[in-house]
């Protein structure tokens, strides 16, 4: 029997709660928008295809990872209509997925398999009749079982790990509906189309980019909208059919909004922003560029939304309706209908200052680690490092190693970025001395990584898994130090550094240590398989050239380009090209 989604029904004008299945309602026709837009008229058949696919399979929690908002939404709603839930990974790293798979009955494919849906048209009438029968038979228990069913798991979200280890955060239908109702009261979406630039795999993108428009019958789009030029085109498409646009963005995207876009002639009702702090300069600049209010939402995966503000009107945060705050001793505690246990106080790891009915954020409370039997403030270490003239940003990492020492990732000015072993050694020595004036020797980091900028996830937060990856070479002495990667057109460029303790340096050669050429080929293959998981069996090497030697401590860039029969690769540094060639790798066909 199909089990209904239950929640507290809401009858606000132009808004239906999840319990009312707004995606099955007859909303104003939005099919005059391009096909890249998602709207209720498109969803019914897609949901039915997923229901047919799910019917013979195990019942429970499924892993759902799909960047396309249309296919993601259809799959999620089919899970809900069939009484199941979704676990939403925050990223697609193999290690992340391997950690999560034991917690689910399976992973949903990109689309339902054809063999399960090929006869769907012939079954549509029967399936519709059966679903209505199921709903009607369950109708007698809808009100009586309302509170119990509202507490059923809807999704499980993954926290970013920006303040420690990533964790799982289940959300029930009550929590989602409570927050969506507040969104509807504050920022209604009547005659509005939503352009989402952030991932719906996280709470903010899921609520503001997918569920809020669904509950209003508003069309929405995402995926490639994260690019400024594409976002501008989507806003124009909405305006051209008489709809206002609501932009769902992150601080990272708004800070990079090009001046030339000049969207002030378009109809943008509002810009929502969340995930990390947005500077006041960026907020005001974007309001001017977009001719629209920029509204920030402060919260977390665990708490949902806590407060909101518009910086052009002041820097104070206003709590969401129903959110109760305790701001004593500069520590933030809250009770909220968006929490799993609304009656209990939640301790938020932020420092605040009360100002009338609002508050001002003062930053994170200390992050502490136990080093050498003593508690060390990672926050204090980072602040001290950032006082040095060459350091732009710093993040300490508790590596849980047997030696009990810390790692640190530092963003330094471009001309101070060490390219060779000696420059790296001198910079580390300088920064150690800088810390030694205020910190005990045991608290000073032992492992140092230097980058142009600290990596941020799509929400603008530090990602714990990415920070840990900077130190993978400590666990495997065959690997280079990984210092970040970026995709440029059809290439991937990976910044690497040769570890001084690399296994392959031993005996190669005494008095003039260098990296063997074959190791560079191995590194190229290793990173190619990470970037292109379908590549598997090695079939040979072509056009291989070794042009310059590579020494311990040297920084370099590995460039990978996909070819029909494998990859092309090159290793370059400020000294020039060290090696290049092509590797033939057979692709796996699932």
Automatic annotation (TrEMBL):
Annotated ApeI dehydratase-like domain residues: 490-578
Region Disordered, annotated ranges: 108-140
A Pfam family per the record: AMP-binding
Start and end residues of each AMP-dependent synthetase/ligase domain: 132-330
Source species, domain of life: Bacteria
InterPro entries: AMP-bd_C, AMP-bd_C_sf, AMP-dep_synth/lig_dom, ANL_N_sf, ApeI-like, HotDog_dom_sf
Occurrences of domain AMP-binding enzyme C-terminal (ranges): 381-461
Cited Gene3D superfamilies: 3.30.300.30, Hotdog Thioesterase (3.10.129.10), N-terminal domain of ligase-like (3.40.50.12780)
PANTHER family recorded: ENZYME, PUTATIVE (JCVI)-RELATED (PTHR45398:SF1), PTHR45398
Full protein name: AMP-binding protein
